[in-house]
Amino acid sequence: MAARLWRLCNLLMAAFFGLAAAVQVVYLVPAALTLLVSINPSITDNGVWRSLCDLHSAGCVVGTIALACSLFAYAQGNIFHEEEGRELFGLVIITIWMSLCRSSAKSPLGGARLVAAVVVALFPFVSWLYIYVNKDMRESWPTHCKTVI
């Protein structure tokens, strides 16, 4: 049961990262890595997979720090209303998910880590739904965001 749920979470995240990659290339690597995990969870033991995961995660951490500094200095309200805020959350999601995938090689996900995986896998879709339904948030979008959906 836990193994199937883990694979399903990876499929959801691969779909999220794949959709997000259509807008920002930074999601392409986690989309591919996560798709591989959903097909074959033991791939996380592979040295090439781990190296790509580590390298991309390190870049995401650096990007997260840079965006957080920018947001703290210049944000004027709700960070979800700022493009940098949404990008920041995307990088955090990548980092958390890659960490969960990487740690799954040591021991199968279960208990708290599996619950965390389900929450993280559902978060992007719930966030998209919230942002899409929230009329006030849509009105504050820049023009290029209004034409995407």
Percent of sequence in beta strands: under 5%
Q: Helix content range of the residues, please?
A: over 70%
- Count every helix, treating DSSP H or I runs of 4 or more residues as helices: 7
User: Gap between N and C termini, in Å?
Assistant: 35 Å
Q: Provide the residue-averaged pLDDT.
A: 89
Main sheet summary: none
pLDDT < 50 runs, ≥5 residues = none
What Rg is obtained from the alpha carbons, in whole angstroms?
16 Å
**Which class best fits the helix and strand makeup?**
mainly alpha
Count every beta strand, where a strand is a DSSP E run of 2 or more residues. Answer: 0
Label the overall shape.
globular
Order of helices and strands: HHHHHHH
Structure description:
This protein has 7 helices and no strands. It is an all-alpha fold. The chain is globular and about 45 Å long. The mean pLDDT is 89.
Question: What topology does this entry show?
Answer:
Blueprint: H1 2-21, H2 28-39, H3 47-74, H4 83-103, H5 111-133, H6 135-139, H7 143-146
Helix pairs in contact: 1-2, 1-5, 3-4, 4-5
Outline:
With 149 residues, the protein is an all-alpha fold.
Question: Key terms for this structure?
Answer:
149 residues, mainly alpha
